[in-house]
Design goal:
The chain is α/β, with parallel strands linked by helices and 120 residues long. The protein has a single domain, classed as 3-Layer(aba) Sandwich (Rossmann fold). It is built from five helices and five strands. Strands 2-1-3-4-5 form a five-stranded parallel β-sheet, sandwiched between helices. Helix 4 links the parallel strand 4 and strand 5. Helix 2 packs parallel to helix 3. The protein is globular, with a radius of gyration of 13 Å. The chain starts with a strand and ends with a helix.
Length: 120
């Protein structure tokens, strides 16, 4: 069981992803914007972060960069989970430090495989 932080401004997406994670016995933390996600990750030190991109204020790419380059959070893997499915978005996400990139709607098998690959 891992502690996973979901950062997404869509309550519907948070519910969908949470139900998958709960089914696989993971503990869930949530934040509905990038700034709160960064603050919560720094405070709670989750095992992994699932990060949406399109959010008000601090977007997911910016929040990912802050987490992956932060001294206290650099070891927490971030997986981008977004509707943005262009190759340039994937490349940009990787450049910000993301360890994975999933496109919504998220496939349960792909999500769990990605999590297991990153944190066992």
């Amino acid at each position: 069981m891992a502690r996973i932080l979901i950062v997404d401004d869509s309550p519907t997406e948070v519910r969908k992803i949470s139900s998958i994670l709960e089914k696989h016995k993971h503990e869930i933390l949530t934040a509905d914007n990038g700034a709160d996600g960064v603050a919560l990750a720094r405070a709670e030190k989750p095992d992994l972060v699932l990060m949406d991109v399109v959010m008000p204020g601090l977007n997911g790419f910016q929040a990912t960069r802050q987490l992956t380059r932060g001294e206290d959070t650099a070891n927490i893997p971030v997986v981008i989970v977004t509707t943005k499915d262009q190759e340039t978005d994937r490349v940009w996400g990787t450049r910000q430090g993301a360890k994975g990139y999933l496109v919504k709607p998220v496939n349960e098998g792909d999500l769990i495989k990605t999590i297991n690959d990153l944190i066992g």
